[in-house]
Amino acid sequence: MKVIDHIKNANGRTLFSLEILPPLKGENIRTLFDNMDPLMEFKPPFIDVTYHREEYVYKKKENGLLEKRSTRKRPGTVGICAAIQNHYKVDTVPHIICGGFNKEETENALIDLQFLGIDNVLALQGDAIKSEAKFMPEPDGHRYASELVEQIVNMNNGKFIDEDLQHATPTNFCIGVSGYPEKHFSSPNLKTDLKFLKNKVDLGAEYIVTQMFFDNKAYFEFVDKCREAGITVPIIPGIKPITAKVQANVLPTIFHIDLPEELADEIEKCKDNAAVKQLGIEWCVNQSKELMKFGVPLVHFYSMGKSDPIYKIARRLF
Question: Is residue 307 helix, strand or coil?
Fold first, then answer.
């Protein structure tokens, strides 16, 4: 079932959903299921599965020359989506990114998803790899998520790269895109960022999932600005409980977000990570309650492989 249909069928009730990371290369999927099992109690209508593109390392050979090797520490997004749907009978939303794919490879990946009965995708630009100063597309690949949305919409309309195909069967994906309450780091300002977001919606994106935030005011203002800009699709808030002291510095650096002064001060007072984890749970519960009162369609949790704090939060909310 499509994400937008889950939202419509909820009739205004706020749903629970989550995003998971694929297991590290070499790990058994049972580890992932063990983490997810407790969260099934809250009946998530869908589960997002992230995609991690290839990186490259250089290994020194016996002759002194360097050999470039491809590495991917978290493979298997498509297979994991299929396994989750088979194991839990829950819809999945694989992340589809621009980086690492040309247009034909993207088309083939989407055809595979269609064959597996996956109805939803989240279209993203993706991050630059460590060896790049900024994001660089593949030759004949997409530079922007809007171009990726356009390709998916074309496939939904039966238009494939090979224009000579006869009687091609259209795909039928529900397309989600990301939104940034504190703006995307590459945009000069929020107004410009909203222009790009509206373009993705105008092209055919049917819902928005936000980057994580820790101040609901940022989300509320973001929704207001989206509506003023003519963006009418559902805007799903994405949130994450802080679980360790180091995250107070790491999360703002990696995700280009702000921590409210009150939260940062309370983290600083915590004597250990156990105290930080409890603080993060309480902060997230309060965030969620306010969001649910606001009438959000879902509260979407970024698990980052840790289900225990999210279980404790969801138990008090759903």
Answer: coil
pLDDT tens figures, 144-181 = 999 999 999 999 999 999 887 878 899 999 999 999 99
Cβ of 291: how many Cβ atoms within 10 Å? 19
Give the residue numbers annotated as catalytic, written as ranges: 19
Q: What is the pLDDT of residues 87-123, one digit of tens each?
A: 999 999 999 999 888 999 999 999 999 999 999 999 9
- Grouping H, G, I as helix, E, B as strand and the rest as coil, residue 300 is strand
- State CA 259 to chain mean position distance: 20
Sheet strand arrangement including 235-236: 235-236, 207-210, 174-179, 120-124, 91-97, 46-49, 15-20, 298-302, 238-239
The b/e string for 89-111 (b: 16+ C-beta within 10 A; e otherwise) is: ebbbbbbbbbbbbbbeebbebbe
Spatial distance between the Cα atoms of 36 and 115, rounded to a whole number of angstroms: 25
| Among candidate residues 100, 113, 174, 97, the one with its CA nearest the CA of residue 140 | 100
